[in-house]
Design a protein that fits this description.
mainly alpha
């Protein structure tokens, strides 16, 4: 049984790690967004920076990424089924929630209009452009599928759960906290509706993470497949290249 003193020490360590990782995530992106030449990559760079800090924090505590879910699934067939389930649920929830939020908001608010004006054209050169498509596809798997899942559903989930250990529904609180941060990470180019929709997706993904016995592979694969579908539709001209 963990002693009260040890529990307090663990919570304090988790809070310190959370502060370092979240600061790296938010501050690096905030600074990079002010540089016109690289604003498109502010999100990916900030995510990689935060993951580097998170990995360093884990190592300092004698932990590693395998401990937060980056490990081989016990059953590959079951993992494949979980991947399909995660893909269907996250896409469905994302479409549903974004549609509901857009319907409730109506016309974009001032903040969202400002985002659209500044960051419009993010994928303007993607339709029909194979090299650009392949570049974004690689980025989608490296940053979206791997980095985001390991960072949000892996490290941040674990640290929030440690920080709230001993409180009722600590895992639920951890799901909500990582979801808010995940949604915020998409706000700078998707606006308020994107924040809420991606936050809802992160809530579903957090619940699935627990259902999948804290294994990240089904979530990483479903995330990558979802991004691949979206980028392929853009490449084929089946979707407008907005945002």
């Amino acid at each position: 049984m963990t002693s009260p003193m040890s529990a307090r020490t663990d919570r304090r360590a988790a809070l310190i790690d959370l502060a370092l990782v979240i600061a790296a995530l938010l501050l690096s992106k905030s600074l990079l967004l002010e540089v016109a030449a690289i604003w498109t990559y502010a999100g990916p760079i900030s995510l990689l920076t935060a993951l580097a800090v998170a990995t360093a924090c884990l190592r300092r505590r004698g932990e590693n990424l395998a401990g937060v879910g980056l490990k081989r699934p016990d059953n590959l067939k079951k993992a494949a089924l979980w991947t399909i389930i995660a893909l269907v649920l996250t896409i469905g929830v994302g479409i549903l929630v974004e549609g509901l939020v857009t319907g409730l908001i109506g016309a974009p608010d001032d903040a969202t209009r400002a985002i659209d004006e500044r960051f419009q054209g993010r994928f303007d050169n993607l339709p029909g452009n194979l090299p650009v498509y392949l570049f974004w596809l690689a980025l989608a798997w490296i940053i979206g599928a791997f980095t985001e899942e390991v960072l949000f559903r892996g490290v941040l989930f674990a640290k929030f759960e440690q920080a709230f250990a001993g409180l009722p529904l600590a895992a639920v609180v951890a799901i909500l906290c990582q979801a808010v941060l995940f949604g915020q990470a998409h706000y700078y180019y998707q606006g308020l509706a994107g924040w809420v929709a991606t936050g809802a997706i992160a809530c579903v993904a957090g619940g699935l993470y627990l259902l999948f016995r804290r294994n990240l592979w089904p979530l990483m694969l479903s995330h990558g497949l979802s991004n691949t579908i979206g980028l392929t539709l853009l490449y084929l001209g089946a979707l407008p290249p907005a945002g």
